[in-house]
Task: inverse folding
């Protein structure tokens, strides 16, 4: 049974989300005096860029829920083994290659260079998709590129449980989605003073995942919901974009205090859901992301870009370090641009010569 769902405008959005994450990881230096007056701007860029991960959460939950509910509507059931097989073939190969490199090969490389072996990350938690909890328990991994996989862990936790939940809860799903959002808000309220838990805990991110899922359910359940976005005029669309962008740019000064911190993630997720729905359905969009063909074409390499970019950044910064060049805003910018280009090349190679072999197997589970 073929029920593949494809929204053309979302490929470009994927790449933009990655780009925000990439920028948040760029310009790294221990000497913050380099930036001086620019440092507050760089710090804000890092904070804002972290919301790219939240966009991935909203987008993934929207697409997965839409696909599962579409399958259910067509066949009256959800084929959970098939869903698992398809997700496994997409996520696991590159994920585990990166983990093997981080936990086995990279330590050998460090040993050869006689660098200290002081990794704090627990490989068992990473290999079982619990890396976000390792981040909470042990802090940031010494091997920097391992840290990026905390979000992949949350995605896999979602993929593992979500089809089962949808099968068990066939009625009153609106209550399910709202309850999950409420649980996440309450959890964030109780942990408002713990920044690490707020960012990395599964329950803290649950509001973003549930918001994306709720958006998909509304699209499939109420024709009037999609009609609203189809008929939305340019002026309100533009105003919502302006308000949403200003909200993200000033998130540190707006969401202060336990109550507002508790609602921060779901409010941002609602804006991201609007972006997804507007791009999917609006007839009067200010701009469709498909207008930028390059961005859309790069969208299919996003997973490889996300997994590999920190590895590339680490090696390029280390390579520059060999020449003992004096760090400046210009050398850091050049490193970042070079890292982006190498990341694009690496993800292209990964996709066409490694990932694609496993993606071909997905056809057996259509």
Result:
């Amino acid at each position: 049974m073929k029920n593949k769902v494809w929204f053309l405008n979302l490929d470009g959005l994927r790449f933009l989300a990655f780009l925000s994450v990439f920028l948040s990881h760029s310009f790294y230096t221990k000497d913050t005096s380099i930036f001086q007056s620019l440092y507050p701007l760089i710090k804000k860029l890092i904070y804002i860029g972290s919301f790219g991960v939240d966009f991935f959460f909203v987008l993934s939950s929207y697409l997965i829920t839409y696909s599962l509910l579409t399958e259910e509507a067509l066949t009256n059931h959800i084929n959970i083994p098939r869903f698992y097989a398809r997700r496994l073939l997409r996520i696991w190969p590159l994920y585990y290659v990166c983990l093997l490199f981080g936990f086995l090969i990279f330590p050998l490389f460090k040993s050869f260079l006689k660098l200290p072996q002081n990794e704090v990350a627990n490989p068992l938690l990473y290999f079982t998709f619990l890396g976000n909890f390792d981040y909470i328990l042990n802090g940031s991994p010494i091997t920097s590129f391992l840290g990026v996989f905390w979000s992949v862990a949350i995605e896999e936790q979602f993929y593992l449980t979500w089809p089962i939940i949808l099968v068990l809860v066939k009625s009153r799903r609106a209550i399910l989605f709202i309850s999950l959002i409420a649980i996440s808000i309450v959890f964030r309220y109780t942990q408002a003073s713990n920044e690490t838990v707020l960012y990395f805990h599964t329950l803290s991110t649950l509001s973003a995942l549930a918001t994306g899922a709720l958006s998909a359910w509304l699209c499939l359940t109420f024709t009037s919901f999609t009609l609203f976005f189809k008929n939305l005029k340019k002026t309100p669309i533009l105003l919502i974009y302006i308000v949403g962008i200003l909200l993200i740019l000033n998130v540190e000064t707006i969401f202060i205090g336990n109550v507002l911190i508790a609602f921060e993630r779901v409010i941002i997720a609602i804006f991201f859901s609007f972006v997804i729905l507007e791009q999917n359905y609006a007839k009067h969009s200010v701009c469709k992301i498909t207008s930028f063909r390059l961005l859309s074409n790069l969208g299919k390499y996003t997973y490889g870009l996300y997994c590999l970019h920190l590895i590339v950044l680490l090696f390029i910064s280390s390579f520059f370090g060999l020449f003992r060049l004096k760090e400046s805003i210009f050398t850091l910018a050049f490193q970042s641009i070079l890292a982006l280009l190498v990341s694009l090349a690496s993800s292209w190679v990964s996709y066409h010569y490694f990932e694609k072999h496993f993606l071909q197997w997905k056809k057996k589970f259509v």
Summary: The chain has a mean pLDDT of 90. The chain is about 75% helix and 0% strand. The CA atoms of residues 218 and 224 lie 9 Å apart.
